[in-house]
Amino acid sequence: MSPGRLTRPPPRLRRGEQSEATAEISEDGRPAFWPLQPFASAIPSGRVMRTQIAVFFSLLFAVARSNAVDIETPKNQPVEITSTGETRYEDGVAIARDNVAIHVGDTDIYADLARYDSQRHEISAEGHVRIYREDKFYLAEHGTYNLDTKEIHAETVRSSSDPYFVNAEKFVNFSDGRSVVENGDFTTADSANPDFHFHAHKVRIYENDRVVFQNVTFYIGKVPVFWWPYLYQSLNDAFSFSISPAYLSSWGPSLLSQITFPITDQIKGRVRLDYRARRGAAIGFDAEMNYGKNDTSYFNLRTYFIDDQNPELNQTSVPRGNIGSARYRVTVEDRTNFTSDIYGIADITKLSDAYVMEDFYQSEFRINPVPDNVVAITKTNPIYTLTAIARFQANSFFQQTERLPEVVLDIPRTPIFGSPIFYQGETGIADLHRNFASGSGFEDYESWRVDTFHQFLYPNTYFGWLSIVPRAGFRATYYNQTRDLGKTLFTPSGDPLVPTFIVPDDTPLHLDGDTTRTVFNAGVEASFKISRAWEQAQSSALGLDGLRHVIQPFTNFSWVSDPGLNPAEILQFDRIEPTTKLRPIDFPEFTSIDSIDRWTIWRVGVRNRLETRRDDSNITWFELDTYFDVNFKNPYDRTSYSNLFNTVRFNPLPWASFAVDSQVPAFDKGFTEVNTNVTVQPISNLQLNFGHRFLNDNPFFLNSSLFTFGGYYRINDNWGVAVQEQYEATSGLLEQQRYAVYRDLSSWVASLGAIVRNNNGVNEYGVLLTFTLKAFPKFGFDLNFDPGGAGQN
Questions:
Q1: pLDDT tens, residue by residue, 615-673
Q2: 366: enclosing H helix or E strand
Q3: 3-state DSSP call for residue 356?
């Protein structure tokens, strides 16, 4: 049994205050006495008796006789002994009984019986022994303390040293903070009956650093759960253990568990043991390592293996091909800082099939359905960045544009020899391969590409308020393979929002020779600001403490020359991807190198900001950005005018925010998109959020009117509830419902949740019960509930 939190007795009074018999052994080895406050009031004992006057005189007599004894004590470290019972001094040993209190340096010792050996400089205490040193506490039946080495030896001991507690048969604490425990229990639970503990035959504790266990068993309550021959636990990192009973339609009844533990100071491991009734058993191991100078480099490994008993199970409306039963995921993430200006990265994921992430890592799948595979090394410099990249197709069932390799030299805006003219450029060479997914029937293609871009800018401010930045540039790109349009038959899209040069992937491939494309670009940006302040604008209800209105009109004119060939001739690697946003019209921000075509575009807009003071700083109370494009020639939007874009941000109070991103075809044909988000916290324990996404008539995406609603309510310190709903109005489907209840159990956090998904008519149900063990000393519990990703994040 491990102890609960124990507190230190009241501090001793100053010299000269009334007390029981007190002895101090001075630096010269001669005992001395003076009155101190009695410890009877500070020490819980039912046998406290006030010392008689005769005892005090007999003690004086004993001291007088001891003058002839050669007693050594540590220099500048007197030993004070106080008791309410018999106190005597024999053969160089001071002995005290009943409610004994000893003070030496930064250590206080309390016991029923104590001896101080002046020759060995050692204090021995018996019976209800309590030892306090700095912020540490030890409770034992017998203990010794050496004044020279500051070592503490104790038997049948309990100790408290935040954030952990120890209960052991034998315990040794050294002056440097190290401790050795034999046959002991170790826990962070601040309770007389802890929810969990480790029992080890031997434990070595390095204060504020680490704990090393030998022959250790992990218990939940009194039930043994796991055994290790050796376990390393950092006191500076998190340890957590979670058990999650779950149910998901595609899993059946399941049990998900994981334990996270440091392996060394720089390496933390996590083991996953899962069982799904409809799928089978699964095991995973993750590792996180910091290394290199100041531990700034890191390596992360994630592995998961399952012998899937029903790999054909599919809770979506999208058909699948044959999938084997041996399914896995292996991910490596690394960043190595070789020097202060050279670093390398690696991001590699190998999957058994295209659906393993969707089936077992649903939360991660929704964010990143196609993991990347790239290795790169970068050299940074104040005036340039040099990067070498290798991107490859590790999973043949996903489409991938391989770069084997690509080397790019990037020079940001840099003044030329201190002049007002700036230069920026980008030059790269790449061996490019576009590999389609296996079984797609599309033809892969490849080409070497050498691309170089150079641009000059002349930023300046006129009249003290007008910023104008003209620019002019040149780009040349060489390809050793192109498409022969004379033999390629395809019909360009008639939709003005779809570029005419896009060749469908299923078009037969006919290759031509090499070519070089050259383009010139020019343009000018301009903007200015005007503002006005209203100090009389005061409203606590609207969060106003003065108001300043800032207006910033801006414009950007961009021209790109005719490249001399149809972009359809260029094999598309860095290509145009569907999006609802306006594309960049400047280089090098426009990164679709292989889709460059002639354009003349004028972007016009105005920014409005209302600023106020809050918490001793200026904040944006309201913001409105309005802009659109005038398309004199735009190969990506063949209408005369783009949609009218408006971005609204409103933060009237610290607990309320409102945002709307919209675009409407105000001047010409187009599509409509309106995204709205509202977040409020009307009371300290309640947070609500509402969102709506509306999309209509976009040629690349389905029409949508998606409503989302969610909230979290903290009932009290121990209970909380959460809800989230997602409804698609165009199909009339309540696509997702999520409900969860959270309970804080002191050492554990428990959550019970349910989820219902409607995947275009295919329903999926899930229930999850999670117990998460809090860490050393705290474990950040994620309030996101997802049975499909439980234990996998």
A1: 888 999 999 999 999 999 999 999 999 999 999 999 999 899 999 999 999 998 899 99
A2: helix 362-367
A3: helix
